[in-house]
């Protein structure tokens, strides 16, 4: 494991120092395609909640609480009863039917593939992993000789090579098989996404095709799941434990498939016996992750017989067999496992003494309330629901504060009459019309390009860079343009110019390419002032296919000659600090952290967060407009 630990340390060092050139030891190849809108296949029927025995008012309250709690950062949610959609909400700017990163939620899908292989007679739970993968390593033969397929399914392998080690190179299977084992396989639950990756590698070894291709005729096509993408490792093996992009309704289909014991429209896609075994408790789990136990790549739930396909940052499919219900949700929280705010709210509405009937009298007023909540969230996000608009937290902004800007270089550019000096002074009474101020600043910023002094920060959040092995080359300049009544921010990064339209009051959507991988971004802006009355442009940039956001606060100083950008992202510093301890072995972690603490008087986690999550970047207005190729 020394190689992997040193690779992690090297990555952290380069991130802290801002050395972004050749930062990755893993071969990068663009994989993610653009999301293509097309006719949705095999949608669920839509029915009123009362016709399925659930009160509309209960669903309305559920959606309001989910969206209203800023800790969830809800994107999409869908509720099924008896195989019918009885409620669905998409929180703007996240559009209906768009696919979404599932993270570990897709582990259960990998488990489905294993169940299919067992049914085909190609695999058994007792098969030894080393034998299946034809490992010839003498060291592996000693360390992992007793490792079985079931141990991978129950997260009890004990193998020390985990997901953080993949930054060390391209051959993840070899690194896993050469790693040590803690304790005896099958005895202790230790969550490790590489167990799931190895299950995917076994699928490829036994079938001669990637797991994604193996599932296409057996799962995706029969269920009408056409808008789906799954990343592969540098060796072409489907990642298995993460990397799946799938829409909320298609994800709900997977939950409904397990609810129906593997049967879809009269066709048995997954053996019923497998579903029953997979969704039964096999191991106890830590309270901090989930208090109810773990099956085969699926978490047990609080309601008797229930279970959850769980992915970090709020990706969940919750199945309640006893009441014939499925709840699917995508979000952007900063929580990693089943013990989280989002699932606590789900539990409140669908577990604690909830006993739906078969049919209720229709409630027109209650249904109207539900539809108003759904429409408001879809149209205007949280602002579209009375009582939620204007609340703080993840959606809001902290008080805007900035130093005076002293020490920032000036370009020497001569200001014309009516330029930013008209804005760049304290407001006397705070009563001036905000719309006029906003329009005035847009015009004054038009054509301005700022050359940045610190160039290690990228538009893509750190979580995305690491997850997709797609690292920034740093933003070198930022510019603003006002054309045809639309306002844009441009960022020169890696020789390309990202040009994002900024919506005011509602996010504007732009497709941006990061090294050949396209992402849809929703950008919403707001002009405000700091405590001294100087202008600030705040930007919330939502990555619409992911669970992350970029945030910028642009302070304009010295009559608009200088800019100071305060960067942030979600999930942010809290998750980085909590997760850093798992990156290194105890000996290396303690030695590295103690050395930095003794030398600099600060924690490694604090340095990493300040340099990568909350950096402050300064720049000066360029004499001429930067020339770059647009993306």
From TrEMBL:
Superkingdom of source: Bacteria
Every Beta-lactamase-related domain range: 77-329
Cross-referenced InterPro entries: Beta-lactam-related, Beta-lactam/transpept-like, Diverse_Enzym_Activities
One Pfam family cited in the UniProt record for this chain: Beta-lactamase
Keyword Transmembrane helix: no
Gene3D superfamilies: DD-peptidase/beta-lactamase superfamily
Entry keywords, A to Z: Hydrolase
Gene Ontology MF: a single term: hydrolase activity
Protein name, as recorded: Serine hydrolase
Biological source species: Qiania dongpingensis
